[in-house]
Specification:
alpha+beta, Uridine Diphospho-n-acetylenolpyruvylglucosamine Reductase, domain 2, 4 domains, 37% helix, Uridine Diphospho-n-acetylenolpyruvylglucosamine Reductase, domain 3, 18 strands, five-stranded antiparallel β-sheet, 463 residues, Alpha-Beta Plaits, seven-stranded antiparallel β-sheet
């Protein structure tokens, strides 16, 4: 952890006058907020505050702005790209206590929540309505953090990412103004689309305090399945052919044999140790059976075996819990390591080629390289284990990831499908979009945050 610095006592006094004991400079709490799930070194803030409302966030912003103190929004710290690290010190705004569901509009299929509500909290709150919020990244992230990073999840292939599922945002700007980016209609042509600008802005343009999200009816029937294959190619070809056939699968994720072995050890499951695809089907009882049978036939043609069904809710939840815990399970493959998690996404037509070339490259890596991902939309991840005490290992991982990104870009893909840019993908972002686009992004940042106080050092470097 970075050493405590002499924090401006005037700033501390003003924050304490506003929030009382919801301000802390405790070394333990600072350390907790100076790390996430990424491989980056700890970078703790000088203080941590726990606001309860948009108005309190505004007042915190005004105090920090007057004294030129950096501000870092924080949800639950599940970032994989160093988004929450206080690289310049400053004040971390922990929004986890802003966890109220403000409104549920059942007839309109939407809900308004504070930024600190997690996806599980929201779905638990609305389950009696027969509706659900679909975006489900591996971790139980906050809705505000998911919006800020433009997150995705296992069922993006059917329901989309946060980009498609955020209707409106309430945001506190760097100058203390509070804005609502749009109204609640499902469509609007009213002016610039500020909602889309802030979705994925990673706390660098404003602090998201409320999110209006789309909800969906829980389907009449849901069925999940897990299918092992004799090769990774069999997995990817099955998914590509399923998508191209127009079969409306709700979820579709891949894991390699190393990942499934790690899951078995971590979750005490007994899946066949082979490249595996997890599926889920939503719809009427008849359509779910029809979808599942069609996918099973495609899988069989591509070397699929051991189709295991899960129709009861508890069995489906157990299956997807295993998939969601894959990241943490894989960490046990090299105890004490951190993981550089790659995040490329390519057009579905190039998926098999990209995965094949990448797995061949992975054979040159010095440690096991598990694969997992939401391949229904062309997004997959590799976990590159590194020893934090050995910088040379991190350098090797970065070189591997650089080759992977170059491969994905050559296939008209992207360096990040869902994790965001943060600290780790700025070089890749420039390679993907070019200097002119980076310059435009920097200009936008200067308009919203001329003093570079909002989550500095993330997305685009300002120097």
């Amino acid at each position: 952890m970075n050493k405590p610095r002499e924090f401006d006592q005037t700033v501390l006094a003003e924050l304490q006058a506003l929030l009382g004991d919801r301000v802390t400079t405790s070394s333990g709490i600072r350390e907790h907020h100076g790390k996430d799930e990424s491989y980056f070194p700890y970078a703790a803030p000088d203080a941590v505050v726990f606001p309860h409302s948009t108005e309190e966030v505004r007042d915190i912003v005004n105090i920090c702005r007057r004294h030129r103190v950096p501000m870092i929004p924080y949800g639950v710290g599940t970032s994989l790209e160093g988004h929450v690290l206080a690289v310049n010190g400053g004040v971390t705004l922990d929004l986890s206590q802003m966890n109220q569901v403000i409104a549920v509009h059942e007839a309109d299929l939407d809900a308004v929540v504070q930024a600190g509500v997690t996806r599980k909290q929201l779905n638990e709150y609305i389950k009696h309505t027969g509706l659900f919020f679909p975006v489900d990244p591996g971790a139980d992230a906050t809705v505000g953090g998911m919006a800020a990073t433009r997150a995705s999840g296992t069922n993006a292939v059917r329901y989309g990412t946060m980009r498609e599922n955020v209707i409106s945002l309430k945001v506190v700007l760097a100058d203390g103004r509070i804005i609502q980016t749009s109204r609640r209609p499902k469509k609007s042509a009213a002016g610039y689309d500020l909602t889309r600008l802030f979705v994925g802005s990673e706390g660098t343009l404003g602090i998201i305090t409320e999110v209006t999200v789309r909800l969906y009816p829980v389907q009449e029937a849901m069925s999940a399945a897990v299918c092992a294959f004799d090769s990774i190619d069999g997995c990817t070809n099955t998914v590509i052919q399923t998508i191209q056939a127009g079969i409306p699968i709700a979820r579709c994720d891949i894991v390699c044999d190393k990942t499934i072995a790690a899951i078995n050890g971590y979750k005490k499951t007994d899946y066949r140790v082979a490249p595996t695809v997890f599926f889920e089907f939503h719809g009427s009882a008849a359509s779910v059976v029809e979808q599942a049978e069609a996918v099973q036939a495609i899988a069989k043609e591509n070397g699929g075996m051991d189709f295991q069904w899960a129709t009861r809710p508890e069995d489906r939840n157990r299956l997807w819990d295993a998939r969601h815990d894959a990241y943490f399970a894989c960490l046990q493959l090299r105890p004490g390591s951190r993981a550089v998690s790659t995040d490329v996404c390519v057009p579905i037509s190039r998926l098999a080629e990209c995965v094949r070339e990448t797995m061949a490259d992975a054979k040159t890596y010095f440690a096991p390289v598990p694969l997992l991902g939401h391949i229904g939309d062309g997004n997959f991840h590799l976990m590159l284990f590194v020893d934090p005490q050995k910088p040379e290992e991190t350098d090797i991982a970065k070189q591997f990831n650089r080759r992977l990104v170059q491969r994905a870009l050559a296939m008209e893909g992207t360096c990040t499908g869902e994790h965001g840019v943060g600290l780790g993908k700025q070089e890749s972002l420039r390679a993907e979009l070019g200097d002119d686009v980076i310059a435009v992004m920097r200009d936008i940042k200067r308009v919203f945050d001329p003093d570079n106080l909002l989550n500095p050092g993330k997305v685009v470097p300002m120097s």
